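In the current project phase, we have settled on a layout for protein records. A sample record is reproduced below.
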Amino acid sequence: MSIRILLVDDHTVVRQGLRMFLSLDTDLEVIGEAADGVEAIEQAHRLQPDVVLKGP
């Protein structure tokens, strides 16, 4: 069973880097991305992630 993650950051490059880093662990699955808080809330309701990870 993998941990389902929603990535949130306003910089596309940061989200891409986090996705690449997290993809190295087979127990983690990035199920979505959001660029701001409003989008993050919408995605979280729709996707039901286990974890919401905000970039630096």
